User: What shape does this take?
Amino acid sequence: MRFHFSLLLLVMAGLAVAFVPLPVPAITPQERTFEIDAHQFAYSPSELKVNTGDTITIQLVSADVVHGLYVYGYDISVEADPGQSATLTFVADKPGSFRFRCNITCGAMHPFMIGKLNVGSNSWLYRSIGLAALAVFGVTVSKKPKA
Amino acid sequence: MAKIELTRIPFIKNALKSRYPQLAVFIVMLIGYIFAILAGLIGTPVGSHNFSIVFVWIAWWAILILVAVPFFGRGWCAVCPIPLPGEWLQHGAVLSPPDKRPKWLNLRVPKMFRNIWLQNISYLLLALFSSVLLTTPNITGIVLAAMLFAAIGLSTVFERRAFCRYLCPVGGFIGLYSQTAPIELRIKDKQVCVTCEGKPCYNGSSAGYGCPWDVFPGGLTKNTYCGLCMECIRTCPHDNIAVNLRPFSADLAKPSTRMDEAFKAFIMLGSAIVYAGVLLGPWGMFKDAAYNVGSSAWFIYAIVFLAIIFVVLPGLFTLGILNTKNTLPLKQRFASLSTALIPLGLMFWVAFSLSFVLTNASYILAALSDPLGLGWNLFGTANAAWQPMLTSILAPAQTLALVVGLVWSARTAQKSANEAGTSSMPVVIYCFVATSLMLWLLL
Amino acid sequence: MKRAELISRILIVVGILLAVGAPLFFWARTPLIHARMAEDGGWNPDVIQAEVGKPLHLKFTSDDVVHGFAVGQMDMQSVDILPGKVTDITLNFDEPGIYTFFCTRWCGLNHWRMRGTIEVSGSSSDPEPATVPLYVSLKLDLDAPHDAPVVPNGKPLAISGQSLETNLPIDQSAEYYRSHSPYEVFESLQNTPLTDGQRWNAVAYFWQSNTTSESLANGRQLYAQNCAACHGENGAGNGVFADDLVQAGEASMQSMSGAMNMMMQAPVDFTDPRRMLGASPALLQGKILRGGMGTGMPMWGSIFTEQQIWDLTAYIYSFQFEYEK
Assistant: This one.
């Protein structure tokens, strides 16, 4: 009985860590422009940090062959030839950490040409580490492992 | 500890006992495998559109690591086509029960090689070149062909499946992780085996071949080296072999004390971490180093890779368990406590592969319609655009996999620590730190 | 041998033969033209035979990155050649001759080296007399310095020149425009009562009136696709490959001697008034047509039509003059 109760407690705590909304600091949205240089097989800069609600303009400059940039989660993309830079403008209204990747086959390591867009703080990472810590706590306090 | 004997179900029993269903699967697999070699050699050199790359490294890998290994253990080995040509030559038959004359040399593998160190090395050899292997159809074709011919070669020199058991780069970790699977092949009654004359399951009989994996089924306590080839079900005169459904990770309750297996756990854990950072991370420098084989950057990458696997991870682990009060010698404690890294490593691979597979799965459609890159459109999907799949549930799924892996490994650590009479805390903390690192790399 | 064993063996042997034979059969029957980055071999094959009046069916595939295909001086839309995909192209030739086909999507520093030829045999139905390019008939030395000794203080405005120009003594023929540099026209106005600034504005208007908005738009597109990667999207000579060209030039200087030392160099800056205002359209035509003879500037003579080159020169002057929109 006690075991079931503490397990329930643990699950509740886990759900809380995973889903309870945090107060989002109110930051007035701004416009941000990034010039991203794309070359085989990387972007530079490869990590972008913006606040939720910002209007993002990405100017993609290809330095060797035709490259693309596809933002996961937002499912939007842009393609640039060398000498013909292209821009992608969108409102970063979904918070979280998103990968972006080349979507125009550009050579061998093309599937791994990856960058990262952080919208707001990467709270899911902290929540996940919190869940991991909670799990370790749960396993350690329940002394006798059920075989 | 409830076990359900699957072989009690007549349909399953008959399907496993008969050679025909397995042979049918074998033939299809072998044709697919040879086709993949050809596609790799003559198809388009563009990896993401070549059948061999897409089917081996995306489709097969997804099935292997997300389904086959976690749920069926060595289930892949049961249908793998690589040893077949060699074995058929060895037997001089594909179906007929063996005649007694051994074909070819039929030597025993020397004792010093009867462990998984060769598999550790063959895996690492592929792992160090993985960026090229994963993206270059030619190389994938050559490696697939080389494995096929190596298996044939070893079959002509040594007895049984020497390639699978001692050299296959994939077999090593499938075996390690198969201990966590809820499927096992075991004997039903020990006494029957003790009194059994001639041990046909190991030595062969007119009903079938002696264990191709060089295992005596009567002594099976863990899945690691049982290839689920079902030969012993056919040869056992006493109907004493069962395939059971069992709780996950049942084999881990009795920790291994072998160093080769302990290091296999570190190799797999370390390579999952390195791949998550190099392949899926935003750092182009690492990708360049990993891809440009032979350059000085690649040598540094190789050295760092090996150092993480053989020095950093085992070193920190040893430091952690150094001060645990215990009567066991350190070496044994090391091997026994590292059992906890088996479920952890498996779930690291699941989390890594989820991302890799879901973002690249859309290549499968195009490759299916135009497998040789000749402009075909067999199923109308040749021009399917690349599109990552299920990106919204990817991060939660990865967290779930990693947290489950952490709980699983912490429990395993507690058991093996109990067994060794020491504290599980250092191992649990080690697993937590590794999980946090993996979360940071993937999310 | 039991029947089952025999059937199984037959199945296996047939299966293996099929798995090996079928791919080889289809592969051998489908001749593909492979496109690779110039460093890795460019087009393969790069010489194609054709006949007048017979449609030429070609199958292209790219082995690495995005490439494109077009035949020089031919009225055709360029076609993308995508990695791992097969593109079917059918061409028709009315005249015999040697045609140049080229890559139309930038694929690295040596993109422009990615060219091949189509040798079309047959008889000509309508032999056209060969015309000599203007720079040749003018006997221009393409490699002589041509800097303008005087340059305006800012970008001359065509709109301000418009009101001045109507009664100025400028020869309105296309021939005159093409064979004179802006500086020469500026000089020809020195006996007028205009200030220097006004004279430059008049020159700007004269340049504008010798082109059309379609021509400029066409030139802009040609420039973006073919020139901007080196000369820069804004003409400043700072395109994405500019640094690579300089490096390649320095490397070749160190490794070669004497006659070969005029190798890759920084792309020309079209926003430099001294250089550009001293160049006539005919001179620019010659430089585009002939190329830079080893400097890294490709020769476009076999690619662009005469009209395309005039469109391009008209656009290049827009880096010097402010045209009205």
Remarks:
- The interface with chain C takes residues 20, 23, 27, 30-32, 34-35, 38-39, 42-46, 48-50, 88, 93-96, 366, 370, 372-375, 382-383 of chain B (CB under 8 Å).
- DSSP finds 21 helices and three strands in chain B.
- Residues 1-254 of chain B form one domain.
- Chain B has two domains: 1-254, 258-442.
